[in-house]
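so my prof wants the structure for this chain in the tokens format not the other one, which i didnt know existed until like an hour ago. anyway here's the sequence
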Amino acid sequence: MRPVNLIPPEERRGEQASLRAGPLAYMLLGVLVAVLAGVVALVLIGNQVSEREDEVATLRGEDAAAAVRAARLAPYTQFRTVSEQRVQTVQSLADSRFDWERVMRELALVLPSNVWLVNLTATATPESGVEGTGGDAGAGSLRDAISGPALEMSGCAAGQLALAGFVTTLKDIDGVTRVGVQSSELPDSESGAGVSAGGESGGGTNDDCRTRSFIAKFDLVVAFDAAPVPVAAEGGLEAAPTSTEPAEETEGG
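here's what i got, hopefully its the right format
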């Protein structure tokens, strides 16, 4: 027969007695696990905070070192900026410089023998006035309409046809875009204008170059519209105007 133990399990003693188990033990075990997880999380978070603080300190040190280097290099940066500005200024001055020497040389080549100048004024801008040139004040209206370089000239020609040919010839000068005639007049027989200096009463000096009845006195303006406007109008470096007043000529006869 098989033996049967009739003692209840909770009252048994020895190795065969079963262990007591209940919800309290599981709750205690869960609390311990939760505490352990919290401690591990705190340690990990603390380590991360320490690493971030170390990174912040390192970045601050690098930023301070970079600021010191930038302060040391600031004079070189300023020098480079000033150097670039000066180079640009010199380049703009060179680009806007007008070659008056070439214009005068070409004018001397195209000036015909039957035309002579009494006054010649070369200006880079309308504001570049020349005092005491002796030119016709009426020519200013044409000059004011030209923003760039221009020549203002007055003189006499052996007739209106000679003047027309001179105007056409002026257009052959390199850079000339237009030629404006302010006035072209023959001597006035009633007022006596145009007689020779020796024949004028009073023995005074005659400023009119019209010594013969066929000679026409003119005032004209030669424009160079395609030339760049000088920096003098913008940067305050005014280009010096030039003025030439050749001696008055009279035709013998």
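also thought this was worth mentioning. Strands lie at 115-123, 150-157, 178-185, 216-223, 242-244.
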